TrEMBL record:
It comes from the Eukaryota. GO terms for biological process: endoplasmic reticulum to Golgi vesicle-mediated transport. One of its GO terms (cellular component) is endomembrane system. Pfam families: EMP24_GP25L. The keyword Transmembrane applies. The chain crosses the membrane at residues 172-192. InterPro entries: Emp24-like, GOLD_dom, GOLD_dom_sf. It is found in: Endomembrane system; Membrane. This is LANO_0F08812g1_1. Residues 1-19 form the signal peptide. Belongs to the EMP24/GP25L family. The lineage of its organism: Eukaryota, Fungi, Dikarya, Ascomycota, Saccharomycotina.
Amino acid sequence: MRLLVSSLVALMWFTLCGAHTVLLPAYGQRCFFETLNKKDELAVSFQFGDRALESTEQMKGDFVVYGSHDHEVIKAFRDVSHGDVRISVPYDGKFEYCFVNENSGTTTKDVTFNIEGIVYVDWNDPKSDSLDGAVKQLARLTRELKNEQSYIVIRERTHRNTAESTNDRVKWWSVFQLAVVIANSLFQVYYLRRFFEVTSFV
């Protein structure tokens, strides 16, 4: 009987999580749907990036969550490089979340995002603070930590590209300076030799 109750509590607390990377079209958007019930939670963490390996710019975009009633905007982020959204669903229905690139013609912009849905559990239920609940909470915190690490990896890639680009510029500037110094030295030697030359007239 106890095993049956534990199984029922585990089924009541169902968590769905997935990681995705999609390419955003120029002046377009990518949208996804989730069918949720009232008081369920929808959590999305995202990071805009660039698929071009030589890119050193931090990409930005918009993120919007729409409800099923008249397509109203529930949450919106404008011109951001990353974000972390957690929404308690106000009613039953199909909810749409979109990554928007409508203000940019960049064709290599992508977005890496993690989606997590948590079915509502009544906290007044005496079973909600059971071992199963604690394990689910620990699993959720672990996923959040993993999402944060994914974000750090993307930022590190962008910063590494910036550093390599800066190093290349410094290298070629140093080569140019060396060439200028050598040319200047040769000119001075040539000029001084002409200055000290003795000319004789017959």
